[in-house]
Structure formats: C-alpha cells, structure tokens
Amino acid sequence: MTLDTRQCEAFLAAAETGSFDLAAARLNVTPSAVSQRIAALETALGAPLLVRSRPCRTTTTGQLLLVHLRRSRLLEDEFLGELGDAGQGGPLQVAIAVNNDTLATWLLPGIGEFLLAQNITVDIVLDEQNYTYALLEKGLAVAGISSEPRAMRGCTVQPLGSMRYRMLASPQFAARWFPAGFNRTAAKAAPVIVFSRKDSLQADFILAQLGLMTGAYPVHYVPASDPFMQAIRLGLGYGMLPPQQYGDLIERGELVDLAPGLYTDVPLYWHAWRVQSPKLERLGQAVVAAGRRVLDQA
Prior knowledge:
By secondary structure, this protein is of the alpha/beta class. The chain contains 13 helices and 11 strands.
C-alpha cells in the first residue's frame, strides 16, 4: 500500500503536538479534518495509531509510524538543504536525545564547528542518560546519547567513553558534616544535592558505600547542571560531578573529594539509525570523535 501524504501529515502533527486542535492549527485545517484523516490512516493500516487522551499518545504501531515519518522528513529536509547551496531550501534540523551533563559540558564545544560547516540545526531533547534511550524508541529523536549499550532494532550503537563521577563538596561543608570522613553516621544528617527524582547517581553511591537507602538522608533537588554544581560549591550539600564539569576546582582547593579513590563511571553511547542520511552519518562521526576526545576510555 501507499501511505497517504495528507493523512500522514495529520498524524505526525497530532503526535508531535499532542493535540488535534494544535495539529489543525499547524496544518491550517479543522480539528475534524485532522481526526478524519487519522481515522482513515488507521483504517488503511488496520491498527490504532493514537490514544485519544490529553495529550494524545502514540500506540506501539503509532510509534513505528512516527519513527518512519520522521526519518522520511529528515531525508527530505536534507535533500532540500542540499538544494540550498543553489539558493533553495534551508538548514537541516536533527532531533537528538542528550543527557543533561553531556549538554552542559562537552557536546556543543565538540560539534559546534561541524554544525556551522554542515548547515545543521539541532533540536535537543533533554533527559537523564538512563532515559534518553526511551526517547529514541518513541520516535521523539532520530539519534542520541544514552547509557544503554544495547542497540535498538534497526539502529547502530557506538561507544563514546565514560564520564567519571566523584562525590564532591566544598571544604567548609566537608569540615562541618564529615569531620571524621565519609561515614554512615554523618551521611544520615548531611544534605545531598540530587539532580532530579530520576537521578540515581548519588543514591546508588551512598547505598553501595554506606548502606543507606534513599530517604535516610536529607536531599536538595536542583534540576540544572550549572546550578547543581553551584549548590555544591556554595556548601548547600554534596554530590557527584564529572571532571568535565568541576575542572581544576579540586586542585584549587575549592572542592574536596569526600571518598578518595571511589567513583562511579557512567558509559555513554551514540545511537542512530542503521540506514542514515549522509549528514546524519557525519553528525554521528563528529559526536563520536568529540566524545572520545574528552571522555575516559577504558
């Protein structure tokens, strides 16, 4: 069968906006027309594509179609972008899933010149490294960085290296809360800086080293990479940081390692489709090269 272009546009708009009304506004048609086109597409495919909730959600079949349509759109955009050399088209936009610390440290400095040279814009979808994989599965990104080593069906995976996290604090915080060192009794009272409720770095480290479960110690939630480090430097709490973020602050005496010799390595991987457009393939090569320049290589 041949997919109907207008029906696919309606489905893509609804899936991306989460609303038939917003999809209608994007396509300059009525919500009823959007609904009718999606219903016709579902009939043609013999499977529901959207759950009519608020916001609407893709079904399993809908996710497969969403990935296909985004891949097709990317190829079309790249073709039009190539025509841009002759005065037509525009930059290619690529949606990539990225974890917060990668974005806050090495990614943009590593690929910025490449993006400018290749006329690519990025639509960055942020989440924790344990969750970016799900964004790829849902079709919300066409490539991305994840801690998941397993390649999805139809995709490739390349290792980038590891971010090594150490448990750090300001000297004043360490002297106040851990005068006898990093121990279980002190950790029950000392506040911890945690990025978000999805962030398990601190909890896993404290459980492994001190046997304390989440809830056994006070927590600050600071869901942004730079303010997260600032909270540690200000002495509000202690938390885990990678060298790409803390730099020479230990050598300068502005931060101290509460558990010398102990750390958590978080391996990162680049995921992308097995069959890629040329620019997406070159983008992947640039990301892999940038990651391998700055990340720990085991």
